[in-house]
Every structure is written in C-alpha cells, then in structure tokens.
Design a protein that fits this description.
Layout (H helix, E strand, L loop, with lengths): L1 E5 L7 H16 L4 E5 L5 H13 L3 H22 L5 H25 L4 H25 L4 E3 L7 E2 L10 H11 L1 H5 L3 E5 L2 E4 L4 E3 L5 H12 L3 E6 L20 E3 H9 L10 H7 L3 E5 L8 E4 L11 E14 L9 H11 L4 E6 L3 E6 L5 H9 L3 E14 L2 H4 L2 H9 L7 E3 L6 E7 L3 H12 L2 H7 L1
Parallel strand pairs: 1-2, 1-8, 2-5, 3-5, 4-6, 8-10, 9-11
Antiparallel strand pairs: 6-7, 10-11, 12-14, 12-15, 13-14, 15-17, 16-17
Helix pairs in contact: 1-3, 1-5, 2-3, 2-4, 2-5, 3-4, 3-5, 4-5, 6-8, 8-10
Bound molecules: adenosine-5'-diphosphate, aspartic acid and magnesium ion.
The site of magnesium ion (MG) has 3 residues, from loops.
Length: 459
C-alpha cells in the first residue's frame, strides 16, 4: 500500500479537491491500496493562529468574522464537491466543528491566555475540516473512502506545538483504527499535522507537519511508498522564490533530503525522512497540478547526481550569537555550560563554529533571545546580530571530492561570509551571511554547481 499526502495548496478550493480525488482514484484503479493524509486548505492554519492570538489579546470582535469566513469557505467547497445526498450531513459536521472553534476562541478571550496546548486544539480544526471534505470528494468519484480521526491514530508526547510521535503506541492504534478499513478494501483519509497525547489531548507536530504525519503512518503500516503531493515538480535545486531557473532533482538520498529540509527547503518537513529511513520506505515528491511530472524520488542510495551539487537550501531571519571568553582557553566544561543555556530555553542551534576563545552559533527561534543573551552574559562576552541568512549547499559529492567545498567558497568570494561550516565526511557546506546578500549568493552557487549546462561545460 501507498501513503498519499496532499498539502494545503493541493486542496485549496473545490477544483483542487476534485483534482486530488482524481489522482487518488487513478491510483486505486491501478489496484494499489492507499491511505490519504491531507493538510488544511491553504492559509487556514495561518488564519486560525492569527484568530487565536487576537482572541487572547482581547480583540474578540475581530475574530468572529474570521471564523465565519472560514466556515463559509469550507461550506462552499463541501457543497461543490460532495454528492447531494452527503451534503447536509457533511455541512452539519463542519458547522459543529467551527462552532467548537468559536467556543474555544471565546474561552481564550476570557482567559486572555494562549498556551501551546490551547492553540493546538484550535489549529486542529483546519485538518479536521479539509479531511472531512476530501473524504466526501473521494466518495463522489466512487472511491470507498472513510474518514478517520487522526487524534485516534497518532499518539504523541505532550510537547504541544512540536509534538513527537510515540511510534509503538501509534502502531497499535493504527492496527485498531486503520488496518481493518484497509483489509476491507476501504481507503482511510486522515488529517495530517495533528494527533493526541496518551491522555487524548489534541497535539500538533509543528508547522508543515502533515508531511511528518504521512511518514509516521507509512512507517507504522509498512507502506511501499510515501508520496508527498505538492505544488512544485519535486525537490527543486533551490527555493524557486529565491533563485530563478531552478529544476527538479530526480533523485535524492535520505541524508541529502534531511539536510535540505532541515536547512530550509520548505517542500518537506524536516522530520519527514526519519520514520521513512527507519522503515526503509522510499519517499516521492510529486506535483498535484502536473501528475505527469516525474517528481523526486528519495531512497537510501540513489544514482549519482548529474551536477556537482545536488541542491541548495536557505533560511532567512537567522540570528548569529557570538560568545567570547578568555576563560574558554584551555578550559573544559565551557561548551557544556554554553549549550545548557540553549537547552534551558528549548532553543535549537543550527550552525556552530568555534575557535580557541569564541563560539558562534545561529538560531532561528528568537522567542527567548533576551533571556539567552543574559544567561550567556553571566560567564562570557556576548553579542548578537539579526537579519542574517543561512545558505546550505548539499550533495553526496561533497563527501568524495574535498576540492568541491573550496570551489564553493571560491564562488562566494566577495560576499561577507559571517560563518562557514563543513563537518568532515558530511554532505553539506553551510555559510551564514547578511540577509541582503542571500539571493545573489544563492544565484552564484546555483549557476556554478547546480545547472546541467555548467556540468556539460566542465566535462
Ligand atoms: P504544501 O502545501 O504542499 O505542503 P509547501 O508550501 O509546504 O507545500 O511546500 C512547497 C513549497 O516549498 C513550494 O511551493 C516552494 O515555493 C517551496 N520550496 C522551498 N524550497 C524548495 C525546494 N528546494 N524545492 C521545492 N520547493 C521548495
Ligand atoms: N496545516 C499545517 C500548516 O500549515 C500543516 C501542514 O500544512 O503540513 O503548518
Ligand atoms: Mg508543507
């Protein structure tokens, strides 16, 4: 069986829903059992987060029209894609869900408090609604689809907003809640991104987390393939919004895909690859608007790339923190003390460079920056700089050809590089530079190392 995941832009309106139903039906016609995972319709999660923030700040009058608008949008799509006989039932289910969201928002407005746990309860509505509608759209084209509540299938820890799956518990639930449908020839449809804790409290896997859900379900079911259907032709050689003239990468290794996702290639949630790797399941990225495009296939050992670098990723709005201490000289325990600060404030560090007396790190989560700087300041001199960007060049060839990283840095001559990082035997070279130089630097490296014409010229 195959897990098919459709992102928000693939279900953004009635036409998109019908297109997805057609893709799934064709898969069924080829005799493959499937499970479908779907994101909220595009922009819905953003709007729910915004509404929750407004409510918690006491701006409740602005919230009501937002939720009414969301309800109306979903009702309209439902009425367009569901069979007439199914419409009244579907619309009343959706309306009940939106009423619950209104009540939750009202509670936030009274409490003037927004915890990650309450936010999860609210944003979950997006995936619940889109999955109900997609189920009806599939039934309308003759697929025996059945809606399954992901909160009964995906068991997570209690880290609301960035929950991690409990794979053993999830596997058990899948055996109970999903396998019987598959065995009976039905196609389960689940909202991605959301699950519930062991105690049954709604949780979410972090933004873009539906990819992760697909991979978790695929691993739990031993799927033959996990398909991530999106709005581009696969993993592109760079973020198309930053670099012109990108192309789709036909093959990626699991390791390359993880690096790219972690360092900013938004097409894949950074955790997606882990469950697939553990279960050895290929992941394919496909375009729901161009079914005929071959997309990207991610496996453990793909054929070698035809260009020196496989692809680039980038992250904007990165903050560099420089920590200097003469006490670091010859002292042990300094790095432990330093990283304990980041651990205490649950802030992930992306890139680290060290010298004898100083350490530089980058973070993209600045919610606790002031507290972190103060804590570091207790034992070192600390400065920070915002509006930096991270450029990450990825390719298996970096492991084999030591001159390649030098060539990349050569191509970036003249750019004010703030940090450079390459670990031995790794597949990436990462540089940090002021944000205003990112697009030019990306274009430069992309032109030299990611385009096929360049490869022909090198040969
Ligand atoms: P979905 O709604 O399907 O989950 P996302 O918006 O999360 O889609 O991810 C797809 C988008 O990721 C693309 O439209 C593209 O703009 C962006 N993107 C950034 N980097 C890359 C990359 N290297 N390859 C493909 N897409 C990328
Ligand atoms: N709807 C969620 C988000 O926007 C999850 C996803 O789209 O994967 O982050
Ligand atoms: Mg996504």
């Amino acid at each position: 069986m195959v897990v098919m995941k459709f992102g928000g832009s693939s279900v953004k309106d009635a036409d998109a829903m019908r297109r997805v139903a057609d893709i799934v039906r064709r898969g069924q016609d080829r005799g493959r059992g499937s499970l479908v995972v779907v994101s909220a319709m595009s922009r819905v999660t953003d709007q729910l987060i915004h509404a929750a923030a407004l409510a918690a700040n006491g701006a409740e009058p602005d919230v009501t029209p937002m939720v009414d608008g969301l309800g109306a949008r979903h009702r309209q799509v439902a009425a367009s894609v569901a069979l007439p006989a199914r419409q009244p039932g579907l619309i009343s289910e959706l309306d009940a869900d939106w009423r619950e969201v209104t009540q939750l928002l009202h509670a936030l407005a009274i409490l003037r408090d927004l915890s990650p746990r309450s936010l999860d309860a609210i944003v979950a509505a997006g995936e619940i609604a889109s999955s109900r509608i997609l189920t009806a759209a599939l039934q309308a084209v003759g697929v025996s689809a059945i809606w399954v509540d992901p909160r009964r299938a995906l068991v997570t820890d209690e880290e609301h907003g960035a929950a991690q799956p409990d794979m053993a518990a999830t596997r058990e639930r899948m055996d109970e809640e999903v396998q019987p449908h598959l065995a009976a020839g039905r196609l389960p449809v689940l909202g991605g991104f959301i699950g519930a804790t062991k105690r049954g409290v709604t949780s979410t896997l972090g933004r873009g987390g539906s990819d992760y859900s697909a991979s978790i379900f695929g691993a739990a079911l031993g799927a033959a393939e996990i398909q991530i259907w999106t709005d581009v032709d696969g993993m592109l050689t760079a973020d198309p919004r930053v670099v012109p003239g990108t192309r789709s990468v036909p093959n990626l290794s699991f390791a390359e895909a993880s690096e790219l996702a972690y360092f900013g290639a938004k097409v894949l949630h950074p955790s997606t690859i882990a469950p697939a790797v553990a279960a050895g399941i290929p992941v394919r990225i496909l375009n729901s608007h161009r079914q005929e495009a071959p997309g990207t296939t991610i496996v453990a050992s793909p054929p070698p790339a035809s260009t020196p670098l496989t692809a680039l990723a980038c992250k904007r709005d990165v903050t560099v923190i420089d920590i200097t201490s003469s006490r670091m000289l010859m002292a042990h325990g300094f790095l432990r003390r330093l990283f304990e600060v980041f651990e205490r404030y649950r802030t992930a560090v992306d890139v680290v460079t060290t010298s004898e007396v100083s350490v530089s790190v980058t973070v993209d989560d600045t919610r606790h920056l002031d507290a972190i700087l103060a804590a570091l300041g207790e034992f070192a001199e600390v400065t920070s700089e915002r509006e930096m960007a991270l450029l990450c060049a990825v390719g298996e060839r970096l492991r084999i050809d030591p001159s390649l990283s030098m060539q990349i840095l050569g191509a970036l001559e003249g750019f004010p590089l703030r940090m450079v990082s390459q670990a031995g035997a790794r597949r990436n070279v990462t540089v940090v530079l002021p944000q205003e130089h990112l697009a030019a630097a990306m274009a430069q490296v992309h032109d030299r190392f990611c385009t096929l014409q360049q490869e022909a010229a090198h040969a």
